[in-house]
Design a protein that fits this description.
single chain; alpha+beta; Beta-clip-like; four-stranded mixed beta sheet; 31 helices; extended; binds S-adenosylmethionine
Length: about 900
């Protein structure tokens, strides 16, 4: 953008830090020169200001005769002026009313070729096509007026009389109608404006009328009217014409307050305030568009221009007297801005240039780019992602007690300032409250709020209550090399409060913990000391957390106690803050950790690091650290890239996964798929254990695994078995009975055979499996018995014939009903045995084992109480009923 600037003019300083954002700050001298060299441009500049009210006043002053200043228009619009052979508005010197243009834009466009242009240049702005005939007649009347006035060019000569004449000639019988007077037309438009306004707008209109009626005596009007041209006298709706009826001065505050947000309503309803919220009677969250939307929808009016309050040299509008009110609004603190007027302009960091200045030396029509009106976040701009906005401080953990302690121990303060003289501000640097970092209020200051300049947070609250973008005045934008930053979209006078730094209030201990654990991998911290022992963690916090550091900042951060509550405010520095500037303050921090961050503030006197000034040695050390850090980062990046590449390659090499489309109608493919499927099924069937069993038995692999529990154990590897000191031993004999042993002793995996009393049939043990519960998977130990000569169970048929509980039943029950509860840490295994036919019931392991033991003993004639067969068995259970240890061994009969 600086390319547009004349070579002789000083160029704006562009800092390194914001080059990518067209960081050009047009110097004040340049602006002044540009303003001086451009007359129309200056007024365009003014009208570019979004305040149409300003434009109106300007119009009155400069137009003299009530002519309206031409708003900036595009070349495209000029085309719309050509119709009807009329002279262009520019050559005629006719100026159209800025706000009229706006109101026109809201009206429905006229149909036909002669329809209005949006800008109102055609002169038909206020007249509908169907009224054309009337206008023609009226135009004649007006041209007569003109003649009477000795050829004075009249404004608003909308319809060419020539056209009217032509029509009359053509139509012959065309009825001569009186053209509506300007007054009538204006009234009509006013009524339309009223109709297009929303309810709230109409209220504003109404209140304006009422005010006007009260404020302006008729006599005064008459005197003034005497000097007005005739057409203007007809505008009896007000000094400034119809639009004067709109109460542009009406404060938004006059409007009924929107209903509280839902959350607030609920908490009020419940009669409680949110816990842990610090009572801040004067605080208000920064109203966002959302917050506003929570209330009733209302039209937003931009009441002030972007450059209001800017230093006069900086301000192309040169602050005419009519703007005093606006000026006053944004200069509440002091007249210090004047003091800086002679100083040479210092380069400031800003995000974008203000394009209007580059256009000022061009003598052509132009349209003010949208972002001059609203230089704000646009679609496509990056937004901060992990930002939880918190516009009120929130106490966390122990900070609450500390906070209360702090509050209760604040010494009282009372200022004794005298009311200020004319042009002075009360409660200035010598104010006792100010010195004590207390904000004045009605209880500690005798001055009225108008006279007291030490009520920053109260002012902020008021401003934010209005809730417009201008009132908030700041926005978050991405910088090229420092992450996000905050930019002002209005001006702030020296010392004026801009925003509050809020977040979670934590203790130092908590801060250290967060640094160690939560933020250890971060390069950005949002921690700021509030009071001794209390820290604001802005990670969840207000927009202020995005303010970057500069070694030559334009803001400062100060703690102020407001009604006994310490709060952190961001204030404009000694030179104030201009529109479009990036907000910065001097972090001046002792580094957390050892590394020093390099500073990219771009200021002339940059210290090089985001820390206090370092001595030579420290600088060297930091430089070394920085080199080391960069080297490590590069290495890490390389490693990461290699890893990713490897992963990618592996993925491609892997046989499984997507292998592309196949043609199913290809018989060869179909055959192959069938074969693969079959193989897979077989492989599943002949799982490892089944195969081994089959091998040992010398029989074909079983169709279905006999031992359900085994299948379970194998197929559910994810089961958690947390009983570390438990070893379960499964013993198989030639009978397909399975028993578990669950010794309580921290035992090595002893088999059932080891634990069982010596038995002559001991050698019948054919297979022992140890299930280790300390692992999440079952492990299996297979030991071949020396006498592993038989797998079939001659006893089995007799068992199955047992009328009572047969071993077959028990085995089946056992096999089918191991229920493992994943969540049960203590007892991972229970056995379920059928208590009655067709009914399954969960039983503790011991009971099932006992049942099984009995069955075995009775069925096989085992040794023991019921023993009539060969074999041995024993089971013992703890007093809890759960099996502590069970040992059984079986042998073949005879
Ligand atoms: C409180 S944050 C400021 C907001 C931050 N830029 C973001 O995107 O969230 C502080 C961090 O911003 C970066 N930063 C701020 N000012 C900087 C500067 N002048 N030069 C380099 N980095 C800066 C540093 O990484 C610093 O740790």
């Amino acid at each position: 953008m600086s390319d547009h600037l004349p070579a002789s003019l000083p160029r704006a300083h562009s800092t390194d830090s914001s080059d990518a954002l067209s960081n050009i700050d047009v110097s004040r001298a340049l602006q002044a020169a540009a303003v001086a060299s451009t007359t129309g441009g200056a007024s365009s500049g003014q009208s570019s200001n979004s305040s149409s009210r300003d434009g109106d006043r300007e119009w009155e002053r400069e137009g003299g005769e009530g002519l309206v200043e031409t708003p900036p228009t595009s070349l495209a619009e000029e085309g719309s002026q050509g119709g009807g052979g009329r002279r262009s508005a520019r050559t005629r010197g006719v100026r159209s009313y800025n706000l009229k243009t706006l109101s026109d834009a809201q009206l429905p466009m006229g149909a036909g070729a002669g329809g209005r242009s949006a800008s109102g240049w055609t002169g038909k702005t206020l007249v509908e096509d169907d009224e054309e005939a009337e206008q023609d007649a009226g135009a004649d009347a007006l041209s007569e007026d003109k003649e009477e006035k000795g050829g004075e060019v009249e404004p608003e000569v909308p319809a060419a009389s020539a056209v009217g004449m032509e029509k009359r000639e053509r139509g012959g019988s065309a009825k001569l109608q009186r053209r509506p007077s300007v007054k009538e037309r204006v009234k009509k438009v006013a009524s339309r404006v009223g109709s297009v306004l929303g309810k709230r707008g109409r209220e504003v209109l109404g209140s304006g009328k009422a005010k006007k009626a009260a404020a302006s005596p008729a006599v005064e009007e008459e005197v003034e009217d005497a000097h007005l041209p005739r057409w203007k006298k007809q505008l009896d709706t007000g000094k400034k014409g119809v639009l004067d009826e709109l109460d542009l001065d009406a404060e938004l505050a006059d409007l009924p307050a929107p209903p509280p947000a839902k959350k607030a309503r609920l908490s009020v309803k419940a009669g409680k305030s949110p816990s842990h919220e610090i009572p801040q009677p004067t605080a208000a969250p920064i109203p966002t568009a959302k917050a506003l939307a929570a209330g009733k929808k209302m039209k937003k009016w931009q009441k002030e221009g972007l450059y209001v309050g800017q230093d006069s040299e900086m301000d192309p509008m040169a602050v005419p007297s009519g703007r005093k009110k606006l000026q006053k609004k944004s200069r509440p603190v002091s007249s210090a801005s004047n003091a800086t007027s002679d100083e040479t302009t210092k380069p400031r960091a800003s995000f974008i240039t203000l394009p209007m200045f580059s256009y000022l030396d061009k003598t052509r029509d132009f349209t003010i780019p949208f972002d001059v009106f609203a230089p704000s976040w646009r679609k496509g701009d990056e937004k901060p992602r992990d930002w939880h906005q918190l516009n009120k401080n929130r106490l966390v953990g122990e900070a609450k007690e500390l906070w209360e302690h702090t509050q209760n121990n604040l010494p009282p303060s009372l200022c004794v300032c005298q009311p200020p003289g004319p042009g002075e501000q009360g409660c200035d640097e010598v104010c006792l409250n100010r010195v004590m970092q207390y904000e004045c209020n009605t209880s500690n200051c005798n001055l009225s709020s108008d006279n007291c300049s030490n009520r920053a947070f109260a002012e902020l609250t008021q401003r934010l209550k209005r809730g417009g973008a201008y009132d908030i005045g700041v926005e978050v934008l991405k910088t090229p090399n420092r992450g996000f930053g905050v930019r002002s979209c209005r001006t702030f006078a020296p010392g004026q409060i801009i925003m509050e730094y809020t977040g979670e209030i934590i203790t130092e201990g908590e801060c250290q913990r967060r640094m160690r654990e939560m933020y250890k991998d971060r390069s950005c911290y949002y921690l700021m000391e509030l009071e001794r022992g209390l820290i604001i963690d802005g990670t969840k916090g207000s927009m202020a957390r995005f303010i970057n550091h500069s070694c030559e900042p334009n803001c400062e951060v100060r703690m102020v106690k407001v009604n006994g509550t310490p709060r952190m405010g961001v204030f404009a520095g000694e030179e104030g803050v201009g529109t479009g500037e990036e907000l910065t303050y001097d972090y001046n921090f002792d580094n957390f950790g050892t590394s020093h961050q390099i500073c990219y503030c771009g200021a002339e006197g940059c210290r090089g690091f985001l820390s206090k000034r370092l001595n030579k040695e420290e600088m060297k050390k930091v430089a070394r650290e920085e080199i080391e850090r960069k080297r490590k980062a590069a290495e890490e990046a390389q490693r990461h890239a290699r890893k990713e590449e490897e992963g990618r390659r592996k993925k491609m090499d892997r046989g499984s996964g997507w292998r592309g489309w196949i043609a199913l109608d290809d018989p060869e493919t179909r055959e192959r798929l069938k074969r693969e499927k079959k193989e897979k099924e077989e492989a599943e069937k002949l799982s490892g254990r089944a195969l081994r069993m089959a091998r040992r038995r010398g029989s074909p692999a079983p169709q279905k695994p006999v031992e359900t529990e085994e299948v379970k154990g194998k197929d559910t590897p994810k089961r958690k078995r947390k009983v570390v000191q438990t070893t379960e031993t499964m013993v198989e004999t030639s009978a397909p009975a399975v028993l578990y042993e669950k010794p309580t002793s921290a035992g090595a995996a002893s088999t059932l055979a080891d634990l069982a009393p010596p038995s002559p049939k001991r050698n019948k043990l054919v297979h022992t499996r140890t299930l280790s519960s300390s692992n999440s998977k079952f492990t299996e130990q297979l030991s071949d018995s020396p006498a592993n000569d038989s797998i079939d169970h001659p006893a089995l048929p007799s068992l199955t014939q047992e009328p009572e509980t047969s071993i077959h039943d028990a085995a089946a029950a056992h096999a089918s009903a191991i229920v493992e509860d994943e969540n049960d840490d203590d007892e991972a295994i229970t056995l379920t045995a059928p208590a009655a036919a067709g009914q399954k019931r969960k039983r503790p392991f011991a009971a099932a084992a006992r049942t099984l033991g009995q069955a075995v003993r009775s069925g096989l004639g085992l040794k023991g109480d019921a023993g009539s067969g060969s074999g041995s068995g024993s089971a013992s259970a703890g007093s809890s009923g759960k099996l502590k240890q069970s040992t059984l061994s079986f042998g073949r009969k005879g």
